[in-house]
User: Which sequence fits this backbone?
């Protein structure tokens, strides 16, 4: 009798793999070990839960434990895999204080990412939050809710919720001023979430612009959106220390020496691949520190796969291994590995780093390589252009200015990346650029793509095409 | 001294060519002959002018005659080219009752399309309209406006407007019931325009669904949108005759024998390439009846180009010559020909038939080959799937059901076409499919495209990716 397909981690990659494996081969035994209580939750939805737009924690779960069981998957929550022996093909699992050995036939490591430990001096003070996991999100929303309106049952989540911590924050007076440290997409989305509770929001970013991965033009548009919304931005300011009294944070200290009194801090700087499990194994890590994988998600060790936020994937543009922890590639790689393990080999695809972020009314997107230094390091000679064009025919009401940046290689004309910002259907337009990257189009070819045109939705020349025309003209 | 670049037709293709030629070679003489008074107008915007969302006729002009002159283009309105002599390289031009010969060095035929003459018996009755040109649009809006509120000056358009006709309609009582004959995209958009004036709208379509070029699934979604809006659809009913008394239409007669009393009729069935000018020339027409062209927009005769609604272009998927009169390909081909004529040869690209249409709150898009018979005729073995998926993460408010159809070739997996309908950012998502066609992706490759994900804009698996997954699974 063969050993099961063992999956370590019950989130996007792990449960996609487990589900696809069972669908492809219903006779295959699949065991999923999840160290926590939450499974398959939508990390990207947590800011909207804090904001109150998403009502209950269970709304963020794409699969309930019962639904997983119905798929014939043996899901074990509260089970932490603490060791891997790739020679004997077993993992060591700890649960309820006991440890046992579990043989595997195929193994998927999908342990995800974790917030950086103590990213700033003082991070362990009370009322300092990260946003890693639903318990954090619940605690923040509890804190924001006036005590007289708070009821832990309103948050949902059932017995998976760490209710004691949440109730402690629910009893506190809501913060009047919050500092958000780090203006990546989580920071920007959390600024919007805090603002919805009428909190005075201060957003700190070490670089000169927010969402640096989205490029300068999007960064400028986000600054304007934050200003319009009344968020105070502190750009080019690095928070070096959090200070507090009675155990709770009360002051943010910047490298310039300036300080700000606050009632709470959200730290949104940095996650790392959760690779502790493989440290004493022959499973190799790539240059990013995440687990190295091949086109089918296989690691350097036979029958061991890795996917999701713990693994590298090939980059769509450069082909080089990259660590871009994002939701779709995790789901896609998990699903492909599930099929492969079940006997229907499927490639995991590549990652272009395509991402979208909402900053109040502003929609932003990015894909591929925007950074010129990174493009040069990959052997390209990058040229970029930024344009602003209407989202609709100029005569149609409510056409919105849409800013597009495209980057191409001067020698070959190949498109390398792009970004977009605007208030009218801007974010989804990045998918056109992402698909052009996937098709390895030149910017001249992108200029000639036969995109749609209708006055309410797009001008004759979509802003992406306008950018392609201008960039192609300057190559 | 060389003769000028002569352009016949002052609309999208013609003026794009003239402008690009002058920008590329400012010393080049460019003459544009336009038989009418209107130039460079947005045909696709006319329903929204009728509706009243676009205020004035001049809002629909992307270029004024003055702006054309500023570009150094010799624009002659009211000049009809009535003959072409390709041996002597001259055109015969009629203006103010006189005819003169104009030599050319390069010639672009951009005479566009015209409404089918007398498409239905009784089409020449009064209060029967097509929507071909701004004078028609102005007449319809004048008719819809209550006489006590009507002023011809409110429509704009200056001396280009045929004011006498418009004033006659402005003096009439507005129609209470209108029949729209033909539910292509103009018919659907005009139904919305009439509805905005509280007219009882009846939409007739010979086939079982509106917008047949968009496929069955979009057709069904449009039917639901029209029903919700209170438009009465008469599907599977062919209008065979319009009857009237005192010269004005009062009855629509269907092939079934059923009749409907109406106060006005909008006929939106069919346009033809305006090829009269080349009938006695060696310039060849393709199988569609439009002018045959090569990859650079050249006709069968040296130094003669054709572009826009009068010309064929290669199809993105089949490579075969096709007649797909749409705005972007006209602009793109004109622009490329202008560059080519000025000494910087640029290909005109291909046409995928990408189109978008708005049906009240519903956004629709289509691209490539949806029709299985057409796919088979091009040598493919078509397989299609239709799915419905959310436009956003399910937990995020106002996620909208989005219906996607994709078609692929069974043998190769190559994507052949797609369509989409939904109320939340649906139309622009067709550009992802169009770009996948341009990149000659298989449906498996489309499934692995790294599209964006953010709860407010797109679920982890964008509806287009969901459709690709399902179709790829059934190949």
Assistant:
């Amino acid at each position: 009798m063969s050993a099961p397909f063992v999956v370590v981690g019950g989130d996007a990659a792990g449960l996609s793999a487990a589900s696809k494996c069972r669908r492809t081969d219903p006779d295959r035994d699949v065991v999923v070990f999840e160290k926590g209580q939450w499974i398959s939750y939508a990390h990207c939805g947590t800011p909207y839960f804090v904001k109150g737009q998403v009502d209950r924690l269970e709304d963020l779960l794409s699969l309930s434990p019962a639904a997983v069981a119905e798929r014939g998957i043996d899901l074990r929550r509260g089970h932490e895999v603490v060791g891997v022996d790739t020679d004997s093909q077993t993992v060591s699992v700890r649960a309820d204080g006991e440890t046992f050995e579990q043989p595997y036939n195929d193994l998927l490591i999908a342990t995800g990412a974790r917030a950086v430990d103590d990213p700033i001096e003082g991070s362990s003070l009370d009322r300092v939050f990260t946003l890693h996991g639903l318990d954090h999100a619940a605690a923040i929303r509890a804190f924001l809710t006036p005590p007289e309106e708070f009821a832990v049952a309103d948050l949902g989540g059932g017995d998976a919720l760490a209710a004691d911590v949440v109730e402690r924050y629910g009893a506190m007076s809501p913060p009047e001023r919050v500092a958000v440290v780090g203006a990546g997409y989580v920071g920007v989305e959390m600024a919007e979430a805090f603002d919805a509770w009428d909190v005075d929001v201060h957003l700190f970013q070490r670089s000169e612009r927010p969402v640096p991965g989205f490029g300068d033009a999007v960064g400028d548009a986000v600054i304007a959106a934050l200003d319009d919304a009344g968020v105070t931005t502190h750009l080019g300011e690095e928070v070096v220390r959090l200070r507090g009294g009675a155990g709770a944070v009360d002051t943010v200290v910047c490298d310039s020496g300036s300080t700000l009194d606050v009632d709470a801090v959200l730290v949104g700087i940095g996650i790392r691949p959760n690779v502790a499990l493989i440290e004493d194994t022959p499973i190799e890590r790539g240059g990013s520190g995440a687990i190295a994988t091949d086109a089918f998600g296989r690691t350097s060790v036979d029958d061991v796969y890795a996917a999701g936020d713990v693994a590298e994937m090939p980059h769509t543009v450069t082909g080089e291994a990259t660590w871009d922890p994002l939701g779709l590639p995790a789901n896609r790689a998990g699903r492909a590995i599930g099929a492969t393990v079940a006997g229907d080999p499927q490639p995991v695809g590549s990652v272009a780093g395509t991402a979208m972020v909402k900053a109040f009314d502003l929609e932003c997107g990015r894909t591929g390589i925007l950074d010129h230094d990174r493009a040069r390091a990959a052997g390209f000679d990058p040229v970029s252009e930024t344009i602003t064009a209407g989202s609709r025919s100029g005569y149609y009401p409510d056409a919105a200015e849409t800013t597009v940046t495209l980057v191409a290689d001067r020698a070959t004309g190949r498109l390398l990346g792009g970004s977009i910002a605007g208030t009218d259907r801007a974010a989804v337009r990045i998918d056109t650029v992402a698909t052009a990257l996937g098709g390895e189009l030149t910017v001249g070819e992108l200029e000639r793509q036969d995109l749609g045109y209708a006055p309410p939705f797009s001008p004759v020349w979509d802003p992406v095409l306008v950018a392609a025309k201008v960039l192609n003209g300057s190559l």
Observations:
- Chain A touches chain B through 69 residues (CB under 8 Å).
- Chain A has a mean pLDDT of 96.
- Chain A has twelve helices and 25 strands.
